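User: For documentation purposes, I need each entry recorded in a consistent format: the amino acid sequence on its own, followed directly by the corresponding structure tokens. There are two entries in this batch. Please keep commentary to a minimum and don't merge the entries.

Assistant: Recorded as requested. Entry 1:
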Amino acid sequence: MIHEIEEEPLFLKIKSRDTVLVGEDEICKVLSFLGGARDPLAPTLFQVANVDTGKIKFVHGEEVREIVSTYEQEVQKRLEPPIEGPLSNFLPTVENYEKKIGKKKLSGN
């Protein structure tokens, strides 16, 4: 007999400060959660803030469709160095101006 391992429901993986998809098209930040009667540590009701409107409301765990990003992922993104190059690439230098206008060298006549 093959026993299938049951994956835990999505709402059990959600933590405070995660960003989640509620319903079909509502992105919310999880503020807090309330546990259930059988297991007070299992989140069943979430207090969320809509990231577009700021409206705060409670939603049931079953209404959460996806974890858009976890708090840990968001912190990691903030700690990573910026993708853009060094500031010297943007400063107004002769070399950068020549690159911008596509000339080999500026003539000093």
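Entry 2:
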Amino acid sequence: MADPAHTGARLVVLGSAALTEGFSLIGAEVHPDADPAVVDQVLGQLVGDGSSALVLIESDLSRAGGQWLDRLRNEGGHIVVTELPSLSAPERYAPAVDDVVRAVLGPEALL
């Protein structure tokens, strides 16, 4: 098992090949054309390894959910998961936090 204190945090990106290609250029661990099963597998491995990681997931994959994805969102900790807009439809991107902001501040908060 790797010691995250000595190896540093990992940057993991899951999504379309077009999205992950750029991240591979900066040395990120990429999983191009991942599906929800791959997301769950990768997240499970990160938890099992005790890794510290920033995990970036394309929005469509992020909304598919999964055992490990749901667990990490609810628990927090040494693995931070966030979503990225799709390159093919960035105008459709609406982060999940928007719903929370509207619930707290009202429906016109983000206009």
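Summary note for entry 2:
The chain is about 45% helix and 20% strand.
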